[in-house]
Design a protein that fits this description.
By secondary structure, the chain is mostly beta strands. The protein contains one helix and 36 strands. The protein has one helix spanning 169-173, and strands spanning 32-38, 42-44, 49-50, 56-60, 66-79, 85-90, 96-101, 110-118, 134-136, 139-140, 180-188, 195-197, 201-208, 225-231, 234-240, 247-254, 258-259, 272-276, 282-286, 293-297, 319-323, 331-337, 344-351, 355-356, 369-374, 379-386, 390-398, 402-403, 416-422, 425-431, 438-445, 449-450, 463-467, 472-476, 483-487, 494-495. The strands form eight sheets. Strands 1, 2, 5, 8, 9, 12 and 13 form a seven-stranded mixed β-sheet that branches. A hairpin with a 2-residue loop joins strand 29 and strand 30 (425-431). The radius of gyration is 26 Å and the shape is elongated.
């Protein structure tokens, strides 16, 4: 045992003081949810050893999508010294998180309390005071405690504060398959006191539907080469479907509209869509499910509508605009019309002079509010309000770079990425979220439009440009590093995959 503090019965006591960091409150959707429980009592021995049963299991089936959030409740917990007890949750895929370990040192006694563990809780369990019924963040004051097989031994994520750890439920299980057996392992690490979790435990899981990939109009998991051609003030969309190479065309929008293609109807295909700034400002969406038009009043002239994505986690893109303040240094504000319930979410974020960087940076299935700011001397920094993982600030790139949104390393999280005009070429600088390291590549000319998307369907955004002088897409495939060239459009067309570049 490698403890951050001694257990009961050792020579001295250590009390750890810490500050709980809280993020900005965000609205959380639960479009698909299931509560499953095992009410059988879990008996904790008076000697060092495993509780009975070991493990206590809950079965989940029939859910669609991947895990977005998890809550765990231990019902009617009684123990003479709860500091002795540790509890770990193991998901169907083998991911494991320590829920509690070493709380209420040295001799905290509890009787019939019900403890719920949630990332959305206000705080952690106390190191000194006996816990009371309520909702708490996962909390552990020891490190190195092992859960014997069939438990996970010491192979689990640790929530801290011991050891400076900060693992979360959603960070551990988010994005995994919810279906299968969830297992709860309980173990007593000190002789002398026993107890039980008389009411068993329950699991509350919510999922998010798989989102369509940006600019995938045929739903095959690959972005399509696509352009908009304006004639007589009317726009015609030309899509080369990657599934069969055939052309798909739609007359949609006007020359003054902003293209905002995304999956608004939740069928896994990008919908042809535009935002019209003339009062009253409107989104015009051509639903791919049935070919019907959906018109939504949203925003004002001068707003930025190029932010489409799923902000509420229901598997459908939301109508979003970013409204600038009255001056470059004034507050800007996001207005989200949630597709889950039609309600409005208002989020002040960034300054008027900032540039938006749309994407899901924490991988929870919801888009985050992100901007790049000029810190002075042409130094750029990204400020991101993540819907699950909290505030993130990263100095990256130059203020004159072009923002290139996408998930370049395929870990389910958008990476902070820019493309720079450098000696007549485009040089891409990507901060990979999986390793926090830089990936850089020269691709395209400084005059090319950048069009990042996953064209080869490997789950990673490809570095790509559209060259107007040749009416061609040049794509660097992440799957093998090779080149794909697609002749598509005319030199006067607008490349659709550039729609969300800022």
């Amino acid at each position: 045992m490698n403890s951050q503090k001694p257990r009961r019965g050792t020579r001295h006591w250590v009390v750890t003081a810490f500050a709980a960091l809280t993020g900005i409150a965000a609205w959380v959707a639960a479009p698909l949810a299931l509560v499953s429980s095992n009410s059988a009592a879990i008996v904790i021995p008076t000697t060092i050893g495993n509780a009975a049963p070991y493990s206590s299991d809950v079965s989940v089936s029939g859910m669609t999508g991947t895990v977005k959030s998890v809550r765990v409740t231990l019902h009617n917990f009684t123990h003479g010294a709860i500091d002795d007890v540790a509890v770990v949750l193991v998901g169907p895929g083998g991911q494991a998180l320590l829920l509690m370990d070493g709380v209420a040192d040295p001799t905290g006694s509890v009787s019939d309390v019900t403890l719920t563990f949630s990332d959305a809780a206000a705080g952690v369990l106390s190191n000194v005071a006996a816990p009371v019924t309520g909702v708490w963040k996962p909390t552990a004051y020891y490190t190195g405690d092992s859960f014997p097989a069939p438990g996970p031994l010491t192979v689990y994520s640790h929530p801290g504060p011991a050891g400076g750890n900060a693992a979360t439920l959603n960070g551990t299980f988010g994005g995994t398959n919810p279906n299968g057996t969830w297992r709860l392992f309980v173990r007593d690490f000190v002789d002398g006191e026993g107890g039980s979790i008389a009411g068993g435990w329950s699991l509350d899981v919510s999922t998010v539907l798989p989102a369509s990939k940006p600019f995938d109009f045929d739903g095959d998991g690959r972005a399509d080469a696509s352009v908009i051609r304006f004639s007589g003030g009317v726009g015609t969309w030309y899509v080369q479907r990657s599934s069969d190479g055939a052309m798909q065309s739609s007359v949609w929008g006007a020359a003054t509209d902003a293209p905002t293609p995304s999956d608004y109807d939740g069928d896994g295909k990008a919908d042809v869509a535009v935002w019209r700034p003339t009062a009253p400002s409107k989104f015009f969406v051509l639903n791919s499910t049935n070919g019907a038009a959906a018109i939504t009043n949203w925003g004002l002239a001068g707003d930025d509508p190029r932010l489409a994505g799923d902000y509420d986690g229901d598997g459908r893109s939301d109508h979003v605009i970013r409204r600038p303040g009255a001056s470059p240094a004034a507050q800007s504000t996001y207005y989200v019309r949630r597709s889950s319930d039609g309600a409005m979410q208002v989020v002040p974020w960034g300054l008027t002079a900032d540039f938006a960087s749309p994407g899901d940076f924490d991988g929870d299935g919801r888009f985050d509010f992100a901007v790049q700011r000029d810190l002075g001397s042409n130094v750029g920094a990204f400020f991101i309000q993540q819907s699950t993982a909290g505030f993130l600030a990263v100095q990256w790139g130059l203020a004159t770079d072009v923002i290139a949104p996408g998930d370049y390393d395929g870990d389910g999280k958008y990476d902070i990425a820019v493309a720079r005009s450098q000696s007549g070429a485009r040089v891409w600088y990507v901060r990979q979220s999986s390793t926090s390291t830089m990936f850089a590549v020269q691709w395209g000319l400084a005059t090319d439009a950048i069009t990042p998307a996953d064209y080869d369907g490997d789950g990673r955004t490809d570095v790509a440009v559209w060259r107007a002088s040749e009416a061609r897409f040049y794509i660097r495939r992440t799957s093998d590093g090779g080149l794909t060239v697609i002749n598509w459009g005319l030199s006067t067309d607008y490349p659709v995959p550039a729609a969300f570049v800022h």
